[in-house]
Amino acid sequence: MPCILVVGLVGNFAFLITVVNVKTMKTDTNFYLINLALADTCFLAIAIGDKFFKYMMVGVPSYGNWFGTAGCVIIYSGAFISFFASLFLVTVVSFERYYAICKPFKHRASWHSKYTFMLIAACWITAIMLTCTLLPGFVPITYTCIIWPQEEQYLDFPVKVGNCSFVGFDVNNFNNTNIGTMVYTNLAQTIPFFFAMTTNTIFYIKIIHHMKKCAGNTSPTRTNSTKNLNRNSIKVRERLQKQVARMLVITGVVFFVCQAPYQFMCLSYVVQNLLHIEPIDAVHANLSEIVLWSCRLLLYVNSAVNPYIYNATNSRYRDALLTLAPCESIRRIRARIPSSRRNTNTTNEGQPQEEHAM
Fold first, then answer.
1. Range of the domain at 74
2. Is 15 exposed, middle or buried (0-12, 13-18, 19+ CB in 10 A)?
């Protein structure tokens, strides 16, 4: 997990620094992605950073919480706010790209940058409000006394460890589970997730279908609307739109693929608790724990890979990142880039009116 944390923080901070310092990267789409990077950074710092800190303090893997109820609230509320914000931001940016690509004339006539900021603010506010309703599900804290071996290496280990009793995952003690709270805390995250996944899938299908349709479309309407524009500029814009669309579709697919196993686990806990299905034995309980941690690892990976997806699928992001590298590195790397592609990107950077295509 520390490797995922380092890779994620480096990638997200590099993306944030690039967008802030490179003028051509200040576009509506990137404002969404900036907030997505912030949400991913917060999630990694809280979800992995908390566990890593506890391991460094104790020396053994532990769920322990030494900050009491306030620690439980901070850790879980921060993780849920980041999750909901990421979910809403991915959906909103998919809608904006669908609107820009499938309804370009309406988008240019009606869309304004202030709508972008309003939607981003709405994403964070909604995420905070939903998280506040989940507070009863992860506020309880229980303390466990631990008897360590009487050896010198264990002398500094704590004898009492606090655990945040998140009722949604109390699968081994059904008598102490609040069924109503458990059902709500799980469904409150799974229902928005599956609704967003369905909505985004529809957007992606429509975007891909429209791009394929336009690729072979030479209708008079399209010809008349662009006949006064430079042909090279048209090609540049179309190429950038395809790159951005492909980048966002891949980002969205990775997001939902990585999140889906965990959400299915949440649904399984709802069914398991409602039907009072207890683990058959310790082997099945341990297997459930392994599956849960595997799902969590996918969540961490998802928050770490987005900046690398941007650079792998979009040449403009790679070129923007290179502009912040040392001059010698830029010359060495740019020498490997075909001159035709460098000229194309340079042409686009010199056309401010095309920036909104991002």
1. 2-357
2. buried
